[in-house]
Amino acid sequence: MGQNAVVEDLFMLSQSGMLNAPLLEARSDGPMDGGSRPSSLSARQVIKIIRRHELLLGAIVFFAVLIVLAVQLTSTPVYQATATVQVELNDDSGSPDMAARNQQRVANEAGIYRSRSLAERVVQDLKLASDPRFVENPLPASAILDNRRLSRLAGRLMYSTSVSSQKESDFIDITVRSTSPDLASEIANQYPASLAAYRAVLRDDRQGKIAAQLDDERGRLATEAHKAEQAVADFRRQHQMLTGAGGSEDYAQINRIATEAASAAAMRAAQSARAAGIASAVNNITTAGATSPLLDQQRRQLDDLTRTRSELAMMYGAEHPKMRGLEAQIAETTGSMRQEQARVIAAATTQAQNAAAREAGLARSEAASAASRAGQLEGTLRSITGKAFANTAATVELNALERTAEAARSAYVAMSTRAEQVKTSLAASGIHSRLMSPAAVPQDPISPRPKSATFAAFVGSLILGLLIVFGIELTDNRLWNAEQIYHQFGLRTFAMLPELDGDALMSAKANPVLKDPQSLFAEVARGLGSEVAELAQPGKAQTVLITSPITGDGKSTVTLTLLAAAVAMGRRAIVIDLDLRRPSDVLRPTDDGGGKPDLIDYLSGAVDARHMLPPLALTQRQDLEPSEVTTYEPVVLSAREPARNPVALMRLRKVNELLDQLREHYDLLIINAPPTLATRDSRMLMDAADHTLMVVRWGRTTIEQVRAALQVLQKPVDGVVINRVDYAEHARRGYGDPVQFYMDSAEYFSGEMPTRRRWYERMAPSRWRERAEHMA
Prior knowledge:
The chain has 26 helices and 11 strands. It is an alpha/beta fold. The two termini are about 40 Å apart. It comes from Sphingobium agri.
């Protein structure tokens, strides 16, 4: 086949989109993995996502079902017994919220059944510590159960027991699970009995303590009342005050009797001193009995406050806020009484003085006749007034003592009544529950149930696996197809190169493009060569820079493949490996003579460019006819060893001089640049190249790496080459691009075609080791 026919066929293949993953237009139903995803997934997309991770999903389901099935088949049978308890509610208060209170009581009763203290009581009552059905290493029956072991056994019992109650119901279900059916029913039936015994002990102890406290308080109040009454009696005896002495009515009666007696005695003397007697009487008139409605009201209020303080003193201390508030009210009322009493006395005094003034005027006329009677009357009045004032002064203290005694009596009576009521309520109130439906010995175990458990494990693991699969898809930021690259970066994909191994990785001459031109790899590589050739300007040599985000993406292999494809298409092509820090073993010079200069020699200025080129390459343009372009050999310029100071050698001016000299002899100059994220050499070398290709590794290079690389370059990139594509796996994933249908055109290619591996082949460790070696 002639050159023109081959070139024409390759051009038609590349234009038709076969095997080189051209730029894909955005589709509403296409996959958008790792990039912009649609807001909703269709059923076909969901199926594709599941197919991509079918091995992981199958492994999750398989191992989950296997583990659950193994556990179910090896588990000890577990039996379940349920006892039903009815709660009896004793409440005759007749409150409108009876239903709510009863439900709260049922909930409280259920909480008691769930408590650790009751579980410990059941362990002790049934002697579960010595029961081999409950513990693996039972204690002897005579052994003492320590608190630590008791707590541990109670926790185990609580774990195997569940207590439930339904809303608006007074029934409680106690369900016990055990490997022994007899033990399960025994424990379930023991719970109400243990609670009844436990509650009886608590009730007796509580009632005894409350009754003793009430009796002690009642005795204390009785003693205080006796002391207060004794203090009143002693005070009256000490001051010679009869019962009722000191009151306003008593003093008025005494004054009237004394006045009449004095008047009778004075009448015999004379009426001459009447005026003087009246004036003297005015000065000695007592106001102790003066009162007013407000003063009487204040006295009653003070009595009520004092009685209330005595009642509250039984329940609160002196520093309690209520007690302190009462003391403040008593002090305020006492002050108000003093003010009112002073006002009443002043008013009475004024009134008496006014009356005396009127009487004095009348009495002066009779002064002479009443003189002798007035003298006798004054003596009598002085005696009576002194006694009245003494009684008045003592009345204040006497009233205080009486109030204290009355408060003590009231407190004692109230405490006696309250004590009887509390004792009666303690005996009649409370919550009681009784066993309505005893737990029968179960006949059938509740577990294991292999069928239902296996089905549940299958469904659960399937759901979990789907969540994991979709989580992987949502978080996967690796690059898998051309459409993804276009949506993320707006870049064309020039080719999706299959995986290449063996000798084809080490030499352009061994590349399948030249060695096996009818192979799948050769067709894809020629498609890459055609895409690059379309970028060239007619009649001008083309310079292409090839770089990648990081190491391991295979840019050296892509460089070698593009060199072989260009040579196969009849172009004079040469590779300049400017990755001086790590010269690739793949890009070894085609003529690796022992003493021949390399790139380092040229860049350091030791030799000229013509000393590095093969002799044939310098003569081909002059000696060969256009029809013999297929005889061109691939040429590689590289360094044999890493440069010691690559920064000093990498000068753009020197590189441009080399490229200018090479453009005189070659049509295509391919520059193999270092990884973009490793050094900034690629950014500098872009100024010397006409076009730039970014190599990404299929399924490994991430979106972030490419984005960071483009940010470092800061210049447009012409396209992307996806390298090391697993065609069979890519087709299985169903991205919808041309690679998915490569097997439909298998008859057009020679050699072995990539075939889809079976699930056990994809799981083989040898495959993982092979991938690890390729990544290294």
